[in-house]
Each structure stands twice: as C-alpha cells, then as structure tokens.
Specification:
Length: 109
C-alpha cells in the first residue's frame, strides 16, 4: 500500500488505485485488514395480507408480497484483483434483485 485509499466511490473507480502495488508471489503485503469498505446496502420489504371468512368452515387469505419496495439499486463489492488492471477497483455487479412482487391466495376448508 502506498498511501490513502480514499477514492471517488463511483462504479468506475471505488477506491484510489494508486494506493496499491502488486507484490511478488509468496510475499505478504502491508494492507490492513478490513480497511476498504464497499457500498452500503438498503432493502425494504412489505407484505399486505387480508383474511376473508366466508362461513364457519370456509376462509381465504389473500397476500401480496413486495421485495425491495423502493427499487433501490444495491451495488456489489469492487473488484479486488490487482492483476487485472482493466477492472481493478470497479463495480460490475449488483448485490440484490430489483423490485419483485408476488400474490398468493390460500383457501382453508
């Protein structure tokens, strides 16, 4: 490590690439453990449920599940392979799915 690792924190360059140099095979570097942090993660899920009773022995439950309600983009971790200069420090993946909804109907008799 050759200095400050703070970078622009964009998907094209998450940390300061100049702060790192490759070391020969079999040699330990001097980077501190857990010094680099990836982007934050936010996820909100919502469930709406309605129980309907038709008679003493017949009922139904209608359920609507929404995952990632606000459709928040959660980026994956930056690429850490220093030998690949084209992708080192870039973010090329997502760590969660986009908004997903499902509806369920359950009959009880």
């Amino acid at each position: 490590m050759n200095g400050d690792t703070n970078g622009p924190e964009t998907v094209d360059q998450w940390f300061n690439l100049a702060a790192f140099t490759a070391v020969p095979s079999g040699v330990f570097g001097n980077e501190l453990r857990n010094r680099l942090r990836g982007p934050g993660f936010q996820n909100f899920d919502l469930t709406l449920q309605r129980h309907l009773r038709f008679s003493q022995k017949l009922a139904a439950t209608l359920r609507w599940d929404i995952f990632n309600v606000f459709n928040t983009v959660n980026f994956g971790l930056p690429n850490r392979n220093i030998s690949d200069a084209a992708t080192f420090g870039t973010i090329t993946s997502l760590s969660s799915d986009p908004r997903i909804m499902q509806v369920a109907l359950r009959f009880v008799f």
